[in-house]
Amino acid sequence: MISCAERAIQSTSPRRCETACLLASLASEAGLDAPAVREMLARGDLADAVRAEERRAGELGVSGVPAFVFGDRYAVSGGQPVETFARLLDRTCQAGTGNGNR
Prior knowledge:
Number of strands: 2
Order of helices and strands: HHHHEEH
Structural class: mainly alpha
Radius of gyration: 18 Å
Mean pLDDT: 80
Low-confidence stretches: none
Number of helices: 5
Number of domains: 2
Distance between the termini: 47 Å
Largest sheet: 2 strands, antiparallel
């Protein structure tokens, strides 16, 4: 049996993930409360926050997934060697932009 997520990925429709029903179904498969997701989508109260995150990601040069952001200053997209992550972690700590313990 094909999952809802697989159907969405394999769909040729340009609107494959734009319906609240499909998104709620995908959320349910991921263990979230589908009625709560439908309600949140209907309200649209997170749309501005999502758009702001998309803009910030673009400013940081994020162009794909997965993407990793360090200290809201450095970003890297896609699979990377361990050395890339180590270098960015060092830069983040040196710049004092880390948000956690050093």
